[in-house]
Specification:
The chain is an alpha/beta fold. It folds into 2 domains: about 160 residues, Rossmann fold; about 150 residues, Rossmann fold (3-Layer(aba) Sandwich). It is built from 11 helices and 15 strands. Strands 11-10-9-12-13-14-15 form a 7-stranded mixed β-sheet, sandwiched between helices. A 6-stranded parallel β-sheet has the order 2-1-5-6-7-8, sandwiched between helices. β9, α6 and β10 form a beta-alpha-beta unit.
């Protein structure tokens, strides 16, 4: 239930300015952008300043949201400084939207001496002071490992969201929507995401050792039928893209007419996305959908075939305002 003037005051990290503007434009009567100066002192340490008038005004709003991006380790400290300060301004309900939990793939220790940094980042975020109306809420989209939500302390609230509605909406507009089959690269992805695609035929893939060379593992169809179908491979993130390429090969060997991919988080270190614009992935993948959870990557690949960026803005806008008009 809204209190005060009923508005949501949206603060954002500098790399998220485009996403924040889209959200504001979709909800002009409900969202107020709070400009922040992300300065640095000569020694490189942060010199941050919120718009003081709007922060004061935000005390009368319904909630405050900080749109964060911790895609680069160098960005984490200054954002923690900003996040820690928000409760001290006596603001109403505070939510931090962290689209990608950046250490999500770093939760395992396989050898003595390995350092798992996922728990460390969760501890840092858990140190956020309790706000005027209670603990700060951290909203994460398609966290890599569901158990990581339990890395956070009880001093904050963790809210897990999914970006899969963006893909469902996009698939419904395709001319061959009736021939689409949803594919999962492994059992883990199937268990996690199948509930969002109960009305589609499903395929589960898996890695097997090559019959001619046991040292090589290839991706093959374990369950389902790809013959004559437009197969859309679903996963939470992509790094090098190798698994998706091998999955596409397995699906085409099974008779798929087309293969496309969706991942919420297009990480693509070292410009690995070029495998799909210039490399072998270009001939294998018809369409590759990602979100703008990684704004720098999204800006580079958007418009380059086969990539298409589906913005998180409608989902975030609906979440923070309760208004579906921007969808």
């Amino acid at each position: 239930m809204s209190v005060g003037n009923g508005k949501v005051y949206l603060l954002y990290y500098e790399s998220m300015s485009h996403l924040a503007t889209i959200i504001k434009d979709a909800h002009p009567d409900k969202v107020v952008l709070v400009n922040t100066t992300w300065g640095r002192f000569p020694d490189g340490f942060p010199n941050i300043h919120f718009d003081s008038d709007l922060v004061e005004e935000a005390k009368c709003g319904s909630s405050v949201c900080f749109l964060s991006s911790m895609a680069d380790p160098k960005q984490i400290f200054e954002q923690l400084c900003a996040i820690y300060s928000l409760p001290k301004h006596h603001l109403p309900f505070i939510r931090v939207v962290l689209p990608w939990f950046s250490t999500g793939t770093m939760e395992r220790i396989e050898n003595f001496g390995d350092v798992a940094s996922a728990k460390s980042l969760a501890r840092m975020l858990s140190a956020t002071p309790i706000g005027k109306t209670g603990p700060v809420t951290f909203t994460i989209y398609d966290i890599h490992a569901l158990q990581e939500q339990f890395y956070f302390d009880d001093t904050v609230l963790v809210e897990l969201q999914t970006a899969m509605p963006l893909l469902r909406n996009r698939l419904a507009t395709l001319p061959d929507k009736d021939s689409i089959t949803i594919c999962f690269p492994d059992d883990g992805a199937h268990k996690r995401f199948k509930k969002y695609f109960h009305d589609y035929p499903l395929i589960i893939c898996g890695k097997e050792r090559d019959l001619h060379d046991p040292s090589i593992r290839v991706v093959k169809i374990k369950e389902g039928d790809a013959n004559g179908r437009h197969c859309v491979v679903i996963d939470d993130l992509v790094q090098s893209g190798g698994t998706l390429i091998e999955c596409a090969k397995g699906l085409q060997a099974g008779g798929a007419s087309k293969t496309s991919c969706w991942v919420t988080h297009g990480i693509f270190p070292n410009e690995a996305w070029k495998k799909f614009t210039e490399g072998e992935g270009r001939s294998l993948i018809t369409k590759f959908w990602i979100t703008d959870s990684m704004p720098a990557v999204a800006a580079v690949v958007n418009g380059q075939e086969p990539f298409e960026v589906l913005s998180l803005a409608p989902l975030i806008g609906k979440l923070i305002t309760g208004d579906e008009s921007g969808l």
